[in-house]
Amino acid sequence: MLERDYLEMAGYEVSTVDNGQLAVTEALNGGYDLILLDLMLPGCNGYDVCRLIRDRIDVPILIVTARTESVDKIRGLGLGADDYIPKPFDPAELVARVKAHLSRYARLTGSAQTEPEVIDLGCVQILPQSWKVLKNGREIKMPNREFSLLKYLAEHPNVVFSKEKLFETIWGYDYVGDSATVTVHIGRIRDKVEDDPARPRLIETVWGAGYRLNRP
After folding, report:
1. pTM of the prediction?
2. pLDDT tens-digit profile of 142-157?
3. 119-213 CATH, one of 1.50.10.20, 3.90.550.10, 1.10.10.10, 3.30.70.100
4. What is the DSSP string of 23-34?
């Protein structure tokens, strides 16, 4: 299951069921932080699962489905789903949405944790709270966009992000520019953090797909 593989690579613990009735039982008894729900389930469809669990558990519910008609989306959200992700989708986007909903839920419930003091990448350390990057103990100066891009990749280790997704996340829709900006910034970051920028090991190019940060 591709979704499970990507979520596990991002550090999440995942369990799956392939039957709607089992999904209801697991959701109510499993103590999960988030439910990722496919509409096309045997035994009990995703709409019924959402209806049966929504009033009994207070966690984000994300619907994933190949049914993209507006009426299906309205119905799912009307039953209490927090998001609706049509197939096919970029698995990296799914991971980002899961992370965003978990963070939002944590803020709303007062359980949000502060950012880690250090994101350790081996010889490179990112200090989110003080907005610093160290290599072998020495500070590396990085402009805001470079820091934000490196931090975002480090927060989603071993996940491939397209240039377009990174541009949308770091620069936003309204920024004047295009995804080529990402390539330029990745090059600058590599010059600062890689031992050999011509043969990068930390930030890897996945040809035809995008970039991946390999976290030890």
Report:
1. 0.54
2. 888 899 999 999 999 9
3. 1.10.10.10
4. HHHHHHHS--S-
